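Appendix B, Record 12. Input sequence as logged:
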Amino acid sequence: SQLDAPSFGGLVRVSLPNDYHVYGLIYDIHIDDDGLVRQLVTAENVDNAIIQDNRVNRNVPLEISVLTIGYRQAGVISHLLPPRPPLSLDVIYLCDASEMCEFTSAGRFGYFRHVLRSADLPIGELLAAHVQQASQAHAECGDPAWKDAATQELITLLRDDYPTLMAVLSALSDVS
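Logged structural output:
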């Protein structure tokens, strides 16, 4: 269902051989240009059966962009870049609440630095979406204080970058 579909800021995992998993945050989802859809939209009097057939039976070229933020090898989570990145066509899985809690509570928010160093991404919105999703997961896992700790860590990391700090805090305040 669409409720279970990956969303902006979502934590995803790619599972590779030898108990090796790479984690990342979704920072972009878009549908590639599709000539057939463009023709259907611009055509007049298209039969409803044709529209329904394309909605149900057609593969749509969906592209999901993911920022790598860590990995798990032999059961140990690291917020470093993985020694072996996944391939672009590897299958990604949306992390459930318990896996989200496990990854985000390992260490001291080390994965935030990967997001903060990605100047070409909407950092404030990405962190706000991620913190919102992770705080919901942590509430389910019995750790409602996670969001406050994450916010304090972001304030500490951005204390010397006032414009970025204000952008991040502004985005976080919109999801509180």
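The mean pLDDT is 89.
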